[in-house]
UniProtKB/TrEMBL annotation:
Pfam families xref list: Glyco_transf_4, Glycos_transf_1
Positions in coiled-coil regions: none
Domain Glycosyltransferase subfamily 4-like N-terminal: 56-169
Recorded GO MF terms: glycosyltransferase activity
Entries under InterPro entries matching the protein: Glyco_trans_1 (IPR001296), Glyco_trans_4-like_N (IPR028098), Glycosyltransferase_grp1 (IPR050194)
UniProt keyword list: Glycosyltransferase, Transferase
Record lineage: Bacteria, Bacillati, Actinomycetota, Actinomycetes, Micrococcales
Listed GO biological process terms: carbohydrate derivative biosynthetic process
Protein name: Glycosyl transferase
Length: 370
């Protein structure tokens, strides 16, 4: 399994997928380990400093010849699975040189934001088209993202939707009395945290002072605190928390609000694993009808969706669920049942391993027919 960086704390979905594999033994390869890594690579030889970056550029110019080949051969690698298109363009020369079939999972920004970054984005799209041509299977985390991949030039017959899923046994027990609104996510524009504060400021009495708890960190933390102070919103910035503490916050909240929205750079929410995590804890979700979110949150069934950017509608949905705990509980229960039925990471990873089997079988047929 290839990722450029191993493994940022926000990418728990990769960790959970690795842990759920039963028939395939993943070898973790990449460029470098990050500080506070959730999972370390088996081989990621380039450091984070200037020397490491320079060494990586030189290695990439040769297609990483001699850097990963030996360990892949020694471990008997049969395919390469790259997470994110931005990583796939880096490992393509290695897979091609060793004749290993390539599977790529696309997650969001690698399809919606990166292609629009001027000249760098144009070069990235050109390299992506080489990936599209060589790869056996292109996995998208939602139907929405699958369509965007095809728009970029991916062959439709290679694109499949595959949900990573979540560990369904990880839910914390619910508390007796739930209160407040919670958001879990990076504090960046695409997650819409400022819209949450703005919506909380428009809640009617007696919900005007409801606590809004935000789990996560990022560049908007200070701005968010200033927004809340100016609007008189009871905001609790909890920072980045370990998974059990995140589960506890989800278990005690009354509503989850994740108003993801399109950024100025074009980035979209491709699906939103966090919506599944909220639903697993019996939380109704309030969000925007945006990107792939409607595939994670069924409007009127597991949550309520507002038109993208409509803060008044977002506030109205929050207020309606805070005012009607019975309805909130009904939506939350439906969301939990859907997660247990459709998004168990063990089931989804077993399906991924079946994809691996199919890919390797097709590669064998191609070898024997040439």
């Amino acid at each position: 399994m290839w990722k450029s960086t191993w493994l940022p704390p926000s990418q728990t979905f990769v960790r959970d997928q690795l842990a759920a594999m039963t028939r395939w033994a993943p070898l973790r390869l990449g460029v470098r380990d990050v500080p506070d890594a959730l999972v370390h690579a088996d081989r990621a030889p380039f450091g984070p400093g200037r020397v490491g970056r320079a060494a990586h550029r030189l290695s990439a110019a040769t297609g990483h010849r001699g850097v990963y080949d030996r360990v892949l051969r020694e471990r008997g690698a049969r395919l390469v699975h790259a997470h994110f298109g931005t990583s796939a363009v880096g490992v393509l020369p290695v897979a091609r040189r060793l004749g290993l079939p390539l599977v790529v999972t696309f997650h969001g920004y690698d399809v919606t934001r990166e292609p629009g970054r001027g000249a760098a984005g144009a070069r990235y799209v050109e390299r992506l088209r080489d990936v599209f041509a060589y790869a056996d299977t292109l996995l998208a985390v939602s139907d929405h993202l699958a369509g965007r991949l095809v728009d970029l030039g991916a062959p439709e017959h290679k694109v499949r939707v595959h949900h990573v899923g979540i560990p369904v046994e990880a839910a914390a027990p619910p508390v007796t009395v739930r209160d407040g609104v919670v958001l879990v996510g990076r504090l960046v524009d695409v997650k819409g945290p400022r819209d949450l504060v703005a919506a909380a400021a428009r809640l009617p009495e007696p919900y005007r002072g409801v606590p809004v708890r935000v789990v996560g960190d990022g560049p908007l933390a200070r701005v968010l605190a200033d927004d809340a102070t100016a609007a008189g919103v009871h905001l609790e910035l909890l920072g980045r928390l370990p998974s059990p503490h995140v589960a506890a916050e989800l278990a005690r909240a009354a509503v989850f609000c994740g108003p993801s929205r399109t950024t100025a750079e074009g980035q979209e929410e491709a699906f939103g694993i966090v919506f599944l995590e909220a639903a697993l804890h019996g939380l109704p979700v309030v969000a925007y009808r945006h990107g792939g979110v409607p595939e994670a949150v069924v409007d009127g069934v597991t949550g309520l969706l507002a038109p993208e950017g409509d803060v008044d509608a977002l506030a109205a949905h929050l207020g309606s669920l805070l005012a009607d705990p019975a309805r909130a509980a009904t939506l939350g229960a439906a969301g939990r049942a859907r997660v247990l039925r459709d998004f168990d990471v063990r089931t989804q990873t077993a399906r991924l391993e079946e994809v691996y089997d199919e890919v390797v079988a097709r590669a064998a047929v191609r070898r024997y027919s040439t």
